[in-house]
Design a protein that fits this description.
Helix content is about 60%, strand content about 5%. With about 140 residues, the chain is an all-alpha fold. It has a domain at about 1-70: Multidrug-efflux Transporter Regulator, Chain: A, Domain 2.
Length: about 140
């Protein structure tokens, strides 16, 4: 049963997961990491999530979609929740992450070029000689 997102009563973990686009397992994980505050529980121990909890889960999911690590997400969450924050700190985190992504892209591009070069050198037939395996065995760059 889907719950109306504008409902004011608490959501169970499945509903919170569905509304936020995060799996129930990850909801528990984020709570264990402290990214999501401890939530209220029923007398029988079931978690009860509020709309702000779901909003926080959406924030975390979007940050993960952009490739931020858990430490960065924790820092961004603190800044997001601090209405007296400086946007300069948020920008610093975003630019540092963008720079890291740029380095990773360069590394992946170099790996792709090496593999394409090795594949071009390989006959890809019944012969046992294979420059791809030779390169892997040598451990040197192509």
């Amino acid at each position: 049963m889907k719950r109306d997102p504008s409902a004011t009563s608490p959501f169970n973990i499945g509903q919170a997961a569905e509304l936020s686009g995060v799996s129930a397992k990850m909801v528990r994980h984020y709570e264990a990491l402290g990214l999501l505050p401890k939530v209220l529980r029923t007398e029988s121990g079931y978690r009860q999530y509020t709309e702000p909890d779901v909003h926080t889960l959406r924030f975390i999911r979007r940050a993960r979609d952009l490739g931020f690590g858990m430490a960065e997400i924790a820092e961004l969450l603190k800044l997001w929740q601090n209405k007296r924050r400086s946007s300069a700190e948020v920008k610093r985190i975003a630019l540092a992450h963008a720079s890291d992504l740029g380095r990773k892209i360069e590394e992946l591009t170099a790996m792709r070029r090496t593999l394409e070069h090795l594949a071009d050198c390989c006959h890809g037939d019944e012969r046992p000689e294979c420059p791809i395996l030779g390169e892997l065995a040598q451990g040197r760059e192509a």
